[in-house]
Design a protein that fits this description.
145 residues; mainly alpha; 2 domains; 72% helix
């Protein structure tokens, strides 16, 4: 948990305790206990991602996509998948293709989905190859074939 959040919560707890509102102090304690830990590992991942390290960018995208240690945010996930995908991370490319195909965190765009599936497929990602094949069969974002 970021230090600023922790300090604010502790101040609120002290205030409530002084006012004799013990039940709210207990609820506040529960909130602290259940708040996802802002770990040193996550801080390091964010720093590395901001410096352009592809694997850290992919890891950060995964955390945003799944809502692990960070609030779930598909738009932010797509941003980081794109950064990793542009550096050749095949799984990022495949996931970004899926996000464009489904319109998750980005506008639905079959041509863009096909582009990212193709990049991942060229690196041997079977799901991306299969998805691109389906798009060709249906003529979604690519000529029907």
């Amino acid at each position: 948990m970021p230090a600023a959040y922790r300090e604010t919560i502790f101040r609120a707890g002290r205030f409530l305790r002084e006012k004799g509102v013990f039940g709210l102090v207990v609820l506040l304690g529960f909130a602290i206990w259940t708040f996802p830990a802002w770990s040193a590992d996550l801080t390091e991942m964010v720093e590395k991602a901001n410096k352009g390290e592809a694997e850290a960018q992919f890891g950060l995208a995964e955390k945003y996509r799944k809502g692990e240690d960070l609030p779930k945010n598909d738009a932010e996930a797509a941003k980081w998948y794109r950064k990793a995908g542009e550096q050749g991370v095949a799984d990022a490319q495949a996931t970004l293709g899926q996000m464009y195909r489904e319109g998750e965190g980005v506008p639905k765009d079959d041509a863009e989905a096909a582009k990212w599936y193709r990049k991942a497929g060229e690196q041997g990602v079977p799901d991306a190859q299969a998805s691109l094949g389906q798009m060709y069969r249906k003529g979604e974002g690519v000529p029907k074939d």
